[in-house]
Amino acid sequence: MGKAAGLAGSAHLELADGVVHLDPAGAVLEAMLQGWARQQRARFLSDEGTIRPREAVVRRLVEFTNDFPWNWTPADGEAFIAHLRSSNRGKPIAMSTGRGYETTLALFMDFVTDRRYGWAAECLERFGKVPQQIFHEDNRVAHVLEHEGQPGRRPLTYDEVQALFDAVDGRVEDVRRRGRKGALTAMRDAALLKTVYAFGLRRNETRMLDLADLRRQPKMPQYREYGGLFVRYGKASNGSPPKRRTVLTVHEMDWIVDVLDHWVTEVRPALEPGRLPALFVTERASRLSPRGLNVAFELARKDAGLPEELDLHALRHSYVTHLVEFGYPEKFVSLQVGHEHASTTAIYTGVSDEYRTRLVQNALKSNQSDLWESQ
User: Fold this and answer.
1) pTM summary value
2) E-assigned strands of the chain?
3) CA atoms within a 13 Å half-sphere pointing along the CA-CB vector of 220
4) Euclidean distance between CA atoms 239 and 50, whole angstroms
5) C-alpha to C-alpha distance for 225 and 223, rounded to whole angstroms
6) In this predicted model, what pLDDT tens digit does every residue of 247-291 receive, in sequence order?
7) Rounded Cα distance, 288 and 308, in Å
8) With DSSP H G I counted as helix, E B as strand and the rest as coil, what are the percentages for the chain, rounded to 5?
9) CB neighbour class for 132 (10 Å; exposed up to 12, middle 13-18, buried from 19)
10) Are strands 214-215 and 228-234 parallel, antiparallel or unpaired?
11) d(CA 230, CA 292)
12) By C-alpha distance, which of 164, 190, 180, 155 is closest to 320?
């Protein structure tokens, strides 16, 4: 069988001719993984966000089976997922996590069984075995629901949002009263969480904001420099660069103008960030880390006595829900949060019983009015 064309990740490009390895199987496995990584980079997929996590899943199955991909069977894949679901090993994985693992392993096996890359021929020649696909339609988790998130993860009610903000503001006052260090950090966390909610931001979108991303809107001069945010690090997809969008300040959230102005003009300079362009900075003059955002939310959530199932992303869900309840059009809400499809926005929406009751009452009034006019 001839060598495959010079595709990124091909076996003949990853394995040097004439080299004798002390551990042939281990060397081929490493070359496979290097080739798969190279093939994914050629598709502009991210090392940190996609390639390395996928490689880790493959290595977990190698460890679980104590065997190599060319020896794997569908039974090995099924046993692996069953093991991860077992309550005997701690917290079982969620259905969506299991599907993600299955998808990753199926993609890897697609790569090594694709004749164009030459790995099947290489395995046959070296080990007398040809790799096979281990996940197919009949042994994979069926995707029957549009949304499979944990039931406890939901939008916050208006009262819960207020309790969260009261808690984070209360932390500022508590630190000041005790004369302890950390007042500036506490004020940053308050501004940070309020910004996440007021603009419906994702975690990375928030931490990657710079001062230059603050936007003045000529038709809304009352908002000064805070008429919107230019989000440059929106969620990417299919190897594309981060998506960009401008999120406008809405009337119902215009309290964020004073919050941001206080942070930018008074608190942030006190942290002495120097020439660092980041909007939200640490006391060490560095950009806030993803963990820093999570910790800020978790501390406020605990102080507010809110359920542990709620996380930082719940504020984004709350933003979507509340915009819908304020009466903003579906298309506008989707543009604000960077959703390409309205169905995605619908998943985020969890309108309150009060809102739905109001809609029903308005519909009844309209029907009654039409009835009177017809008589």
Assistant:
1) 0.66
2) 214-215, 228-234, 243-248
3) 14
4) 9
5) 6
6) 999 999 999 999 999 999 999 999 999 999 999 999 999 999 999
7) 23
8) 60, 5, 35
9) middle
10) antiparallel
11) 22
12) 155
